[in-house]
Write a structure and sequence with these properties.
Elements lengths: L1 H13 L2 H6 L2 H4 L1 E7 L1 E2 L4 H4 L4 E2 L1 H13 L3 E2 L2 H10 L6 E8 L2 H14 L4 E4 L2 H4 L5 H11 L4 E5 L5 E3 L5 H15 L4 H15 L3 H7 L7 H9 L3 E4 L10 H19 L5 E3 L9 H8 L3 E7 L2 E2 L7 E5 L6 H9 L22
Parallel strand pairs: 1-5, 1-13, 2-3, 4-5, 5-6, 6-9, 10-11, 11-13
Antiparallel strand pairs: 1-12, 7-8
Bound molecules: zinc ion.
Zinc ion (ZN) binds next to β5.
Length: about 350
Amino acid sequence: MRGAKLMVLRALRAAGLSRAVAASPWRRRRLSILCYHGISLQDEHEWNPGLFLAPNVFRRRMEYLHRGGYAVLPLADALRRLGDGTLPPKAVAITFDDGFHDFRVQAFPILKAHSFPATVYQTTYYSDYNRPVFRLICGLMLHRGRGRAYPGKGWNGDPLDLCAPGSVDIELAKLDRFARDNNLSGRDKDALAEQLAGCLGQDWNAILESRVMRLLEPSSIRELAEQGIDFQLHTHRHLTPRAEQAFRKELDDNQARLNEYLGIRPSHFCYPSGVHHRDYPDWLRRWGAESAVTCHFGLARQDHDRMLLPRFLDMNFTTDEEFDAWLTGVVEFLPRRTYQAIEPDAEPSA
Ligand SMILES: [Zn+2]
C-alpha cells in the first residue's frame, strides 16, 4: 500500500504537478506544521525511528526546505497569518516536542545555519529533574541489550532474556507497569533504570554523561531562547488528565516553569503524545491557550479549530517523496489511513 502511494508521489513529482500544487493559491491558504521530537546523539533512532531522526536525515530535510524555497515562519506569526489569510507562498512552521537535550546539540546548529525559526514544546518535569526520561532510557538500554540472555536475576527477580523477537517491548511494558502500579517517584524510577543498566551490564555513568534521553536543562532553555528559539507548552509532567482542574494544573505548572526560566508566559500548546479528548479544546480556550497542535497528519487551514491543528510527524523512515508531498500539499489529494499518535508516553509521576 505504501509502495503504491510512493509510486504515485514519484509520478506526480516527475510530471511537475507537485510543484504546481506547491505554488498554487490553494496551498497558499494552508500551513504545513512539521513535528519533530529528538535528533539522535547516538543510536536512539535505531530503537525508536518514530521519535528520533538520525542527524543526517534531519539535515537533509532542512536542506530540502531551503532548496525548495519554503517560507519557514515563526509559529505564532504563521498562525496569525493563517487566520488573516496573509500567508506567503509555501508556508511552513517547524516544531519540536518534549525539548530533548539533543535539540541543542544536533537540531539547533542546523536550524541556525539556515536561519530557520523553530518552536520547542517543552515539558518541564524532566527539565527540572534532569535525569534520563525513564521509559525512554529503559527502552534504549533494552534495545542495546537485545538478542542475549543475562546471567543472574533481572530487575524484578525474574530471569532477563532478550533473545526472542518482541522481548524488548515486553520487558519495557513490564517496567512501565511496575513503575505505574507502585506509583514510583522520579527518583525511584531513576534508581530502577540504573538497576536495569546493571542487569544488562551497561555503564550507567557513561549513559548519564552522554545525555541521551535527557531534556534541556533550564540554563540551556535560556540560552536557546536568547538565540531566538521559541518555547511553548507541553504540560509539566507530559500528562493530559481527564479532570479539568488537574489538566489546568499541568498547564499552570508548565507555564510557571517556563516563566521562571525565561520570564515569558507561553500560550501555544501541544498535546502530549498527541492525546486529546473531546473536552480539551474548550478547557484550553478557557485557560487562555492561543493554539494547540495534535499529531493528526494534515496541512493547517483557516477553518480548523485552533485547538486541534494538524501537523506532519516526520520520522526517520519518512521518504523524500512523502516529505515533499507534505510540503507541497499533494498529500491532501491522496487517500490516507488515519494516523495514530505514536509517541510513547514519556512521563513520570512526580
Ligand atoms: Zn511529547
